[in-house]
Write the structure tokens for this entry.
Amino acid sequence: MFHGMRGSMAKPASAFVCQSCGTTHSKWTGRCDGCGAWNSIVEESREAPASGAKGQALPKGRATRLHALKGDTASPPRIETGISELDRVAGGGFVPGSAVLIGGDPGIGKSTLLLQALASLARKGERVIYVSGEEAIAQVRLRAQRLGLDDAPVLLAAETNTSDIIATLNEDAVPAIVVIDSIQTLWSPVIEAAPGTVSQLKAGSEALVRFAKQKGACILLVGHVTKDGQIAGPKVVEHLVDAVLYFEGDRGHQFRILRAVKNRFGPTDEIGVFEMSDGGLREVTNPSRLFMGSSERPSPGTAVFAGMEGTRPLLVEVQALVSPSPLGTPRRTAVGWDSNRLAMILAVLDARAGVSLAQHDVYLNVAGGLRLKEPAADLAVAAALLSSMSDTLIPHGTVLFGEIALSGNIRPVGQTESRLKEAQKLGLGDAVIAEQGETPVIKGLAIRHMTTVADLVAWVASRSKGLRRIA
């Protein structure tokens, strides 16, 4: 009798889930097999599958109508916030019925930017709602008062229960935009897991995205990031939403960069530039002047690079410092650029141009806190290194861009005309680029072509004017 009772009691099913990537394991381990994170696996209870479900055939479905790829489709409407840099990154404004995930370091300004956007829309007559799971209503009001936004008719709520949030949003007219700050605080009583776990994140995000699609509201989800800069939680959350935006910057810098890494309704790799001030975040309408640094007093080791961020050309100052090293293993430090790429450039200069920096410390920095990812910055980096080593000034008003191959050849890059036009617009008079078939003619801009890194070394050495020569 007792044996039969023990057999009838169903043991609650559980799984061991990584809180960083969402990978499920059969047992607890110290290291996740999916993402390699340590001590990130937590046991979570889950409902057992219904008895008899295994092996059952799928029910017969109905045929779906097929459509041709070509057809008339209207562009989706946009909700313009009035903050042009934010609208630019979103692809011209937010789309009704979409879900957007915004991530960034704590204190970087995510809540401030979104509160400013909601206030701008509320003043235009839109119904907007700000749901805070981390701050009380009084705290949000104090921030709005400090930013001069307390007169805007933004509706506030302090709630973390997903069901209560959706019930509140369904009460009156459908809001144009809803901000959920943040998804890590969401929880549902039907799931036996703590807020912030993978199960709660997935359930809360799915419910809110479903509400956005059904009601036509735009949902902006704020997410925390890990120490590696990735949005915390499983990758399925990023797959659920229509756009993923990252808010980047350093607390020591007053400048912030909003970057789109996924956008179903607009271009990716687009950026918006903001400046943190006492009155909140202000737009930087001409970021090239910001990232070029101080051009009034040029110094050896600086070069101006013309880069592309999405559709926007940017002029960036690359700074290098090369000095003899007292250490057996010289330092190699890069801020704002890939250190592996720096090592490659140093190796190419040594092997293909005879410039050895093996006994020198090398420091590389990108002005303004921007992070460069383009191989097109190779030529500017190499020029800055040679300039610092030879104590030579790169001619004032010169812009450089081009990719350096392992063979030592300098390769042309895309969107050359846009880069050159941005340089000409800001008053630069010279450009150093790779040899290419057809070079656009830009009035007022003298263009010099280079084929190999040896040409670059000869050009820098010819300008040293008796100072310390390149070895």
User: Anything to note?
Assistant: Residues 9 and 18 are 28 Å apart (CA to CA). The chain has twelve helices and 21 strands.
